[in-house]
Amino acid sequence: MWAARQWHRAIAGFALFSLGGSTIRGTHAAVPDYVVKYADAGLNALAPLVWTHSQDPYQPADIAAQVAHSIPQVKYKPVAGAPSPLTLNNLDQLNALGGKDIFLTSSEGIRALPDWFKGVRPNSDGKTEGAISSTIVVTEREDGVVDAFYFYFNASNPEKWHREHNMIRFKNGQPQAIWYSQHAGGRAFAWDAVNKRGLRPVAFSANGSHALYTTEGTHDHTIPGVSLPIGLLTDKCNEGFLWDPTLSTYSFRYDRASQEFSAYDADTPVNWLNFDGQWGDEQLPDDAEGQVILFGQRKYASGPNGPKFKELDRKNVCPSKIGPCFIRRSLNLQEEEEQELKRVVELL
Ligand SMILES: *[C@@H]1O[C@H](CO)[C@@H](O)[C@H](O)[C@H]1NC(C)=O
Ligand SMILES: *[C@@H]1O[C@H](CO)[C@@H](O)[C@H](O)[C@H]1NC(C)=O
């Protein structure tokens, strides 16, 4: 009971950022240290820190700028009667004009690679100055479970909302497990298994790719979720620029029952989260100039859809498409490989 109440305060503290723990502090003596540590810290203090690759030309980008630079299109044709200018406050109006068939197409064309695709390199504080580049969504579940999703925004065409996100599952205020999305899949780890900087888990965003890893170095992703000893398709990670997504973020609460988002402050635009369409250009046909297909993965794939499609109401820390949710207890993936392969074989 106590833990649940403290945890609700921690969420309130997260909402208002400044609430801190003064009301909590008086009760410290009665509670175990670890509870206090996390309850006091609040969610932001446990948010992931993300290393972007030193040579990645596409750094985290401003979500609103992406919308401002987009022309909504259906089947490569502009949508008639679309709001102009298009903003985060009116983006959901497109739902009545084509919804999921709409692609937020860059004004410059998919292969033009305009400068704003490049995003903003995190500064020495980890902030993407002038760019709100992440979205945090918190949702409460039954039995004291709280899920915090951290979505990382990338303007590079066509991967606007690339699928990169972490999700941390808390139970009675204690972080239990963390999900790292990788291409079409990802991996879940026990909280204690992943590396931290202070209290915060560390993620590595792969160079030229859409995957988050727990460690730097080269990661094979030929079969999503399976670490093959010989890399056919590999992702490369290093400690390039340390990005603190909480310093440049929009934060929301998601109500599972009503499927509604609400912002934690009055200045945060909310409507865009209801947009049903795709954040990017429509996939180039397979025979188009510049299109490359490797093991079924396309260089110019269709832009993905937004956070509300990332299964915010999850039974497990893994999305359900993964099948059985295997929570790794160590970072030694080879040790766990047998189980992973078994899981994949079961899915085939
Ligand atoms: C990182 O990606 C950039 C741009 O695609 C490329 O030029 C660079 O060689 C890559 N670095 C590594 C280590 O793969
Ligand atoms: C952003 O997406 C592009 C294109 O898919 C990719 O090359 C790049 O590595 C991504 N950057 C980050 C920081 O995720």
Automatic annotation (TrEMBL):
Asked whether the keyword Signal is assigned, the reply is yes
Report TM segments.
none
Specify the superkingdom.
Eukaryota
Extract the InterPro entries matched here. Vps62
Tell whether Nuclease is among the UniProt keywords. no
Keyword annotations for this protein, in alphabetical order, are: Signal
Signal peptide positions on this chain: 1-29
Spell out the PANTHER family in the cross-references: DUF946 FAMILY PROTEIN, VACUOLAR PROTEIN SORTING-ASSOCIATED PROTEIN 62
Q: What is this protein called?
A: Vacuolar protein sorting-associated protein 62
Write down the species: Uncinocarpus reesii (strain UAMH 1704)
